[in-house]
Design a protein that fits this description.
Layout: E1 12-16, H1 36-52, E2 56-60, E3 76-79, E4 82-85, H2 96-106, E5 111-112, E6 125-127, E7 132-136, H3 142-154, E8 159-163, E9 175-179, E10 182-185, H4 187-190, E11 199-202, E12 214-216, E13 219-223, H5 227-235, E14 240-243, H6 246-249, E15 260-261
Bound molecules: citrulline.
Citrulline is lined by residues 25-27, 68, 71, 73-74, 93, 123, 169-170, 173, 251-254, 257.
Length: 262
Amino acid sequence: MSHANISFRFSNAIVCQPGQSVARGLCAENRGQPDFRKFRQEHASYIDALEQAGLKVEVLPPQEQFPDSVFVEDAALCLPQGSIILRPGTPSRLGEADIMAASLARLGHETHPVLSDGFVDGGDILVTDSVILVGLSERTDRNGYESLKQILSDWGYRVRAVHTPEHVLHFKSDCCLLDSETILATSRLAESECFSSFKILTVPEGEEAAANSIRVNDVVLTPDGFPATAELLAREGYSPVILGVTQAALLDGGLSCMSLRF
Ligand code: CIR
């Protein structure tokens, strides 16, 4: 079944403000601690950009006990049928799912019971109109995938497991949906042939981090510092909006992980 318009036409988003504890967020490689004030500024610009794109944005207060809770996308998957509470695949983040479940319920979302087994980070789930791709990764395991697939199949979605490149945190660190037929991806991910039914735009060499962009209604939010990618997007007829995400990047985060869009 095709689910037109669930992949990039949105009316709402949920974000969570970074707390001071964001300075202790997880990162694979130490590139310096994020600065709380600068993070807050970049986060505020991100909220503005979502609003400019036409979304009503619900801003959750900082969760100091969870340093990585600004990356809301990893704790839930919001679809028209309801919101699935995920099981983030690293111990310090597992509790974020309970907080998100409570927030979603308070906002009136139908929350499906949490995954029954395994682990899935939302950053590994790419929703397209024709199929939902789930990247197996250090955070998303086979049991989590099967458990998620069960729920999604019951809702009528096609679901496929794919592989996240080695040393890449999440599947969507390396790709983004541009429209129903087109994906922006790094060459290392495109080579894995997981996008066989899509047109692929390859992120120019050296700009791999720009693959973590997001199509939101008529614009593509894309990180600052990657001019060749912005140029490629504009040349292909998309409307890039450039945003600073220097602080999230210090924690291996990017544009897609900082909101739940639905
Ligand atoms: C983590 O390691 O979990 C966070 N520091 C970054 C999460 C980024 N989330 C995402 O790409 N979906």
